[in-house]
Amino acid sequence: MAKLDNKQQSYLKERFGGRVNFDKVERKLYSHDIAAIPGLIKPLIGSTVPDAVVQPVNEEELTGLIRWAMENEIVLTPRGKASPVYGGVLPVKKGIVVDFYRMNRVIGVDSDAQTATVQSGVVWEKLDRYLKKQGLTLRTYPTSYPGSTVGGWLAQGGPVSDRMRRAGFAIM
Ligand SMILES: Cc1cc2nc3c(=O)[nH]c(=O)nc-3n(C[C@H](O)[C@H](O)[C@H](O)COP(=O)(O)OP(=O)(O)OC[C@H]3O[C@@H](n4cnc5c(N)ncnc54)[C@H](O)[C@@H]3O)c2cc1C
């Protein structure tokens, strides 16, 4: 895949300002998850340093980015907290890492229906604290709940998705 050209970089700067990063050191931090890539595997996948890192803040920015990336044939790799340690967040085709760090809001809780609507970068523990204020709690979560996101878990098939669905989760 070709690197981002000047026009593409300008577009990203205009849309995301300080929330797009082209810095080499910063990009390197996004080339692995919370573990180092095993030496045996590294030569097989080559460099995983992305061309840019973007942190959208809402759904509108995200859908705009996806549309633009598709038109420009640029690969996007979503990233929550990168906790699973088996490489799902590695940008093996480079392109842009979409970091959900800033999409961390609880949008609403319906205590009657027992449903929660959240942005995908919400960390489980934060959501649970929010629910507890209303006398509610999560029915399930990964044991990595202090350092993993709702979106990251569900995207990779969080193992109790039926219960989650019955509990009424919606992700924006
Ligand atoms: C100590 C520890 C305990 C753990 N316990 C459990 C456990 O009990 N159960 C369990 O299932 N797992 C467990 N895990 C694995 C992992 O932490 C969880 O699955 C976690 O929920 C992943 O969330 P994350 O935010 O780190 O996801 P990430 O690693 O950031 O993302 C996971 C995958 O989803 C994609 N993704 C992320 N966000 C989005 C999005 N918004 N839209 C589309 N795709 C997206 C990423 O590209 C990646 O492929 C554990 C890990 C550790 C280190």
Describe the structure concisely.
The protein has 172 residues and is of the alpha/beta class. The protein has helices spanning 6-16, 24-29, 42-45, 59-71, 124-132, 150-155, 161-167; strands spanning 20-21, 52-54, 76-79, 96-99, 106-110, 115-118, 169-171. A hairpin with a 4-residue loop joins β5 (106-110) and β6 (115-118).
Give an overview in words:
The protein has 7 helices and 7 strands, in the order αβααβαββββαααβ. The chain has 172 residues and is of the alpha/beta class. It folds into 2 domains: 6-102, Uridine Diphospho-n-acetylenolpyruvylglucosamine Reductase, domain 2 (2-Layer Sandwich), CATH 3.30.43.10; 106-171, no CATH class. The strands form 2 sheets. A 4-stranded mixed β-sheet has the order 1-2-4-3. A hairpin with a 4-residue loop joins strand 5 and strand 6. It is globular. Bound molecules: flavin-adenine dinucleotide (FAD). Flavin-adenine dinucleotide binds next to strand 3 and helix 6.
